[in-house]
Design goal:
2 copies of one chain form a homodimer. By secondary structure, chain A is an alpha+beta fold. In chain A, about 40% of the residues lie in helices and about 25% in strands. The two termini of chain A are about 20 Å apart.
Chain lengths: ~325, ~325
Amino acid sequence: MTTNGPSAGAKRDENMTGKMQTMLREAQISITDAIEKIDGKGKFQEDEWVRPTGGGGVSRVLSGGNVWEKAGIGLSVIHGEMPQENLRAAKDRGTARSSKDEKVPFCAAGLSCVMHPRNPHCPTMHFNYRYFETDDGEHWWFGGGTDITPSYVDEEDMQHFHGVYKDVCDRHDPEFYPMMKKAADDYFLIPHRGERRGLGGIFYDDLNDREPEKLFKFAKDAVNHVVPAYGPIIEKHKNDDFTEEQKQWQQLRRGRYVEFNLVNDRGTIFGLKTGIGRTESILMTLPETASWLYDHQPAPGSPEANFLDAARNPRDWV
Amino acid sequence: MTTNGPSAGAKRDENMTGKMQTMLREAQISITDAIEKIDGKGKFQEDEWVRPTGGGGVSRVLSGGNVWEKAGIGLSVIHGEMPQENLRAAKDRGTARSSKDEKVPFCAAGLSCVMHPRNPHCPTMHFNYRYFETDDGEHWWFGGGTDITPSYVDEEDMQHFHGVYKDVCDRHDPEFYPMMKKAADDYFLIPHRGERRGLGGIFYDDLNDREPEKLFKFAKDAVNHVVPAYGPIIEKHKNDDFTEEQKQWQQLRRGRYVEFNLVNDRGTIFGLKTGIGRTESILMTLPETASWLYDHQPAPGSPEANFLDAARNPRDWV
């Protein structure tokens, strides 16, 4: 899945950034429409922004909903010049360019989303689908994924969520789901905790091993299955009763979410450190509220301990 | 203040790690005693831990106090071997060692503390005093500082806090306060926000430009002035009335505190990434609760806007 060096496997599609932008904008609209219906009260506020050095984006943010405490979905289309070292940092791999100091003109389009519900039995959901290319056609790749972060393990929910994405993957390549499920389990690890932030999903990056059109279709299929994968789980749990202890546990898991995003998430750190992207749009992913208690340990055998076990030892759900 | 390369300016004191450990442990006890008296309800729980690869520590944590929602003060004495690259990362400078792969035996003693009060008119306070040396006497240095993070500007409080530390500094070297005040303003910057996490204090690192005994006495004087600098501010404000909006503003500032600690704080990132230190002790510094709202902007002319201005443009308080 991951190649090293220039994207030699297939030819770049000259119009791919534009195609991705159009497709992702449509997905942004259809997903926010569906989420508003499930929420019943909250409305997304749209906010356009322009990046002074090239490009911009459209953020849609819902706060104070019935179901969601905070939900954000941001489209970014960025073009500019990037130092070689940023390209290397972004890709975690070397480049074939000759001059060390040369700046690399690039273009990137992505749609990124996090939704944090109030009810501790409703999972947080995140997705991100993106396309990156350098102007000379030397480098291009797709990345993306959808993953789920409950506070408790509901096996049926996980079978549903992972099942939807396994079906999506299988339609494009039977090797995708096992590979991308493992990549999500690897990516969402918080090393200093020895646990993942949630219960995974699919994740892929640096994908350029076949025709761009095929990878575009896969991204489109995946982003258009966010609502079928996530919506039914929220409908099922949005009115569940919960205790104060369960709410506190959710807040601690939100703390872990913040830790992952600020310490380990490649995209967040890349965006914050390079100044590529807009801080408020990058940090839109953080929950409205989070909590930290010193050395909190769930009681052995409790549902909280069961969740931690699943976050420490990834399970196969489908 | 900062030297480059081996600590050639003065001879190492063979007993310094032990002396620091004893002095910092006494400070840990006297500070927690004083804080318990001010709080009136909360008690520090002591927790000893052993680092499997060498050393350990004593954490004292208070939660659920009258005044403080969470306060932690951790003593660590760590010895072990460190890859060259960690030594470089720790010091942000190269080393003179010949072999690249050689591991460097080291010893470090430090006392680190964060206290987060409930009342939004009571500031959070942080300090850290530490000593580091490699076993061959080639490298040693002191670091430390005390800084304050209110949610609102109270000029009198800031004059008091900075005034106490200016007096401490002036007794040791009249150049210390201006240098260390500026170093704190530089260090506590959150670059992706263009603002500091709080209103500064003093900060120093890599200090080895004079006899170890002199630097030890300075560290001792500084840590022993935490209570005189911070206590009166808490006594003054601990029963202040506050609104829900002021509490929410405090929660947003706590979010910035988390951002700084997880994205920018050298010590936190070093500890989490290298596995040197214990995660729960490193992250003891995080607040019990924090909040993020999308693109929140205080009203022009409001006390919140005045705070932001002071966090963006450091002021001289004394």
